[in-house]
Amino acid sequence: MEQKDIVIIGAGLTGLTTAFYLNKAGADFKVLDLLDRPGGVIHSMQENDFNYEEGPNTGVVGTAEVFDLFEDLKGLCELEVANDAVNKRYILKNGKWEKLPSGLKEGIKTPLFTLKDKFRILGEPFRRKGTNPHETLAELVKRRMGQSFLDYAIDPFILGVYAGDPNYLVPKYALPKLWNLEQDFGSFIGGSIKKSFQKKDEQSKKVTRKVFSAKNGLSSLTNALYQASKPENFDLGVKNIQINHENGLYIITGQNGDKQIEIAAKKVITATGAYALDKILPFIPANEMNKMTNLTYAKVIEVTLGFKTWKGRPLDGFGGLIPFKENRDVLGYLFLSAFLSDKAPKEGALLTIFMGGVRKAELTYLSDDKIREMVEKETTDLMDLSEFKPDLFKLTRYNHAIPQYGADSGIRFDTIDKIQMDFPGLLIGGNLRGGIGMADRIKQGKELADQLLKTNI
Ligand SMILES: Cc1cc2nc3c(=O)[nH]c(=O)nc-3n(C[C@H](O)[C@H](O)[C@H](O)COP(=O)(O)OP(=O)(O)OC[C@H]3O[C@@H](n4cnc5c(N)ncnc54)[C@H](O)[C@@H]3O)c2cc1C
Questions:
Q1: pTM
Q2: Bridge partners of 252?
Q3: Which end of the chain has less Cβ packing within 10 Å, N or C?
């Protein structure tokens, strides 16, 4: 049986970041994954003069760890920051794209919000702060800002980030920065202003709202992490991975083709989604396991369209989001070639569309042909095309795209803490807690490595 200090299950961005920092510290570790390539949902592709992503397209430099990671990977992978076009965002209202206001003047003029709510927002800093930690995002926004802000700002934003439902997500867990603004300062507006005047330490200065990708696609980030963590430390394409706990050690078994994997390790970390845990950790009591695996994931279809010559509406921004109220078949468009380099030929365009999500999950069961038909109808209308003849049409389905942090999240987080106390050396990572975006995953991956290196077993 192979002996290792640490075994990581999952070679997505979380597991790879942990592996990278373990390797940097000279630790003895191995990474196992079901897929035969590193990166998890991150998968950059090149075809027919287009560079596109099958999974996430861009992240936000929302944690200092993103900045630090790209610094640590200098020479192996290059950060690409989106150009200024990214600051212009559109929201669909009554079938027409309206610019999301970016300042007071635009805010007064915008048709997105009602006059009543525009006046109401003036009173936001004076409204009492909420006391219910399980208040939903919809309740919180209606209480502080009004229905039209919920419908035409927060709802499309939540569709874009979570493919989720503001009536289910609980800000304390799903949007902790927003939740803390109200809890710490009593107001979103007042809190944001006060925060902007607070003195920042070196780490907080690295946190920005900049939108990032990596030169040549996000796979160049995950491939750089893989190479730097040494491919010999990885076993990819391993089926039926199972961990058992025997005499204080973790015995990890699995099957890679004809090869039977058997490793004894002092510490193990899971960096998969919640949905995989019951098979991987059979020794966890069922009542505790259920509190982790009952996490809802949004099902999503991602469609990428490439046009060698673009003849539709100007693609002058980050993209357009579509509020649920508009009742369309797509959640929104990303105008990728408008703000990232080398995505499409010079006169062309690369767009990504998301469909499904928590409130339109039924669409994700439709056939590829039916989806194509819907994309054609929506895109011809919404992008002002006279005909729909893309040079690239790619469709990817995700059954477990984005976890939804609802009111049961607190119980889940407490359960994870309890399991980790009961089984020293076991760490449960991955997107079941700690945030859903790439910046959160990098932060968690680094924290897990730090924790593993600190724990003496
Ligand atoms: C369609 C889509 C679009 C997204 N868009 C964005 C975006 O624009 N911006 C952003 O910041 N974030 C986005 N995200 C979220 C972001 O991609 C993720 O937070 C991040 O990439 C997840 O990394 P991870 O390592 O935690 O999980 P994953 O990438 O899911 O990796 C988990 C790994 O575990 C492995 N695994 C699973 N089960 C087993 C098993 N039984 N045995 C062994 N291995 C197993 C998987 O094969 C996988 O490699 C998006 C996600 C999706 C799905």
A1: 0.97
A2: 243, 263
A3: N
